[in-house]
Design a protein that fits this description.
Layout lengths: L1 H9 L6 E6 L3 E3 L3 E9 L5 E3 L1 E14 L2 E13 L4 E3 L4 E9 L13 E8 L7 E9 L2 H13 L1 E10 L10 E9 L8 E10 L4 E10 L3 H9 L4 E9 L6 H12 L1
Parallel strand pairs: 2-10
Antiparallel strand pairs: 1-3, 3-8, 4-7, 5-6, 5-9, 9-10, 11-12, 12-13, 13-14, 14-15
Helix pairs in contact: 2-4
InterPro entries: Spore_0_M
Protein name: Sporulation protein
Length: 256
């Protein structure tokens, strides 16, 4: 019977299972993720080579003029040495890791999750998935408020493949797309896109793309050639939060 149970466990029947429990599921990038992993023994003893955690998100890239969604591992961790789990046994293993500072905010279509798995030789690796809500840090939070106060509405948030010249650690950038609904830029601009890239401690490089609305024949030609877009780059820190609205207004005014 023991041999039969081992054979079943190799194909996932009656095998060990895993369940991760996060102490806190709402965090901002850079915060510490803490929790425990519970491992439950199955119908036979099994050697667990390691317990691993992988932090995932998704982004969109173009392949043959089609948008394709890709899963991407933001970080991965091994949290234990090899051990053997006995039938019916329960083990609890604590873990902690810092959420990378470039973890995207879970707004719009963006999702972030932790996959917990057991690495078991010659057997199916059990896995568990836990979603994390990544909140905007103070700079991004206030930037969104500043754009709304200027007269824009946040239309879309999405992680898209980044041009090679702008890539950092990640192959994508999270874009916050705003459209003017009131105020001085209504009727003048199609949209404004903001991207925030970490640059040291409490400092972000901001990419602002201003998309002007086509006006007249020359404007239509410019739009067709994508010459109606202007890219602005500048840096912001926590100290700049009180003046973000004026910084954004001046930058948009300059290129609208």
């Amino acid at each position: 019977m023991a041999l039969f149970n081992k054979v079943l466990a190799q194909i996932g029947i009656g095998a060990a299972t895993v369940d991760a429990k996060l102490f806190k599921a709402q965090l901002t990038a850079g915060e510490k993720v803490e929790g425990i992993v519970e491992v439950y023994g199955g119908n036979t003893d099994q050697k667990i080579d390691c317990i691993y955690l992988r932090l995932y998100t998704t982004y969109v890239r173009e392949v043959d003029d089609k948008k394709v969604k890709e899963n991407f591992v933001l970080n991965n961790f091994k949290i234990n040495d090899p051990f053997t789990i006995q039938p019916g046994e329960k083990k609890e293993i604590p873990f902690s890791f810092n959420l990378p500072v470039d973890t995207p905010v879970t707004m719009g279509n963006t999702r972030v999750w932790v996959t917990t798995g057991l690495d078991i030789k010659n057997a199916i690796d059990p896995r568990d998935v836990d979603y994390v809500e990544v909140l905007p840090n103070p700079i991004i939070h206030e930037a969104i408020n500043a754009m709304v106060d200027i007269g824009f509405r946040l239309r879309q948030v999405e992680c898209e493949e980044a041009p090679h010249r702008l890539r950092r650690r990640l192959p994508f950038m999270q874009e916050f797309e705003f459209v003017p609904t009131t105020g001085p830029f209504y009727g003048k601009l199609d949209e404004v896109e903001l991207t925030f890239l970490p640059d040291g401690q409490d400092r972000f490089e901001v990419f602002m793309e201003v998309d002007r609305r086509a006006r007249g024949l020359s404007g239509l030609f410019a739009e067709a050639l994508e010459m109606d877009e202007s890219m602005v780059r500048f840096y912001v820190t926590d100290q700049d939060i009180p003046k973000l609205q004026q910084m954004f207004r001046d930058a948009i005014q300059r290129y609208s």
